[in-house]
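Lab notes, practical 5.
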Amino acid sequence: MPSIRTVTAAAAAAALGSGLFLAPSGAEARQNGGGNKPVDIEVFAPEQGANAGLAGTGWFVDMEVDFPAGSLAATGFNGLQLTGPAGHNNIPPAPGAFGTGRDDKMPGLVVLTSTTSSTLPGFSGPGTNLAGLFNLTGVTNRDAHETELWDTWLVGAPVAGSNVDTVLTVAVIDDLNQDGIYNDAPNVVTDANGDGRIDRRDLEALGVASNIVRVPFHISGDPA
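Output from the prediction step:
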């Protein structure tokens, strides 16, 4: 099984250098509408019901996260990110740490899959927060209505399995310590209700500032 260190951010590096931007694709997956929540998430990839990836790798999570207009610092964002494993980890032009757990650049974000590995080093099953593995983070809009961040992950190892149905779950955690900043995502989400699953109910028990997006899809086991 390939190590998580096999992922590459070379394509993302070229994109940043050229100013290229990943445009939204097709249908946006949005569930549990934000209601009175201050933060709104739209996931563009994977699409609901998609057959994504190559032998468990090569699929994307691509999203925008809309915060209320105001201080950029209040979103938890603390710098542009272009990162990846090995030689790509935490180096210029946009250094960011790369590993499981809370993302240093968007520390309020939680990203889960229902089939996340419990055997690979650094992974503890479906409760593992995968946000720290994201490669590309930036600011896509700031105006009188919103502060919009964009976040993208190119999955370079079968950390959520291969030839398997899975569910992606994404949310921004509430300001739990009441410091005015969305930076309280855990490294691991626990089974708060003891039902043997890690899902939206556990995020709701923890406290969320956003809608909770769930995207059921298939991770392809077919090679290129």
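Observations recorded by the TA: Confidence is low (pLDDT under 50) at residues 1-30. The first helix runs from residue 10 to 18.
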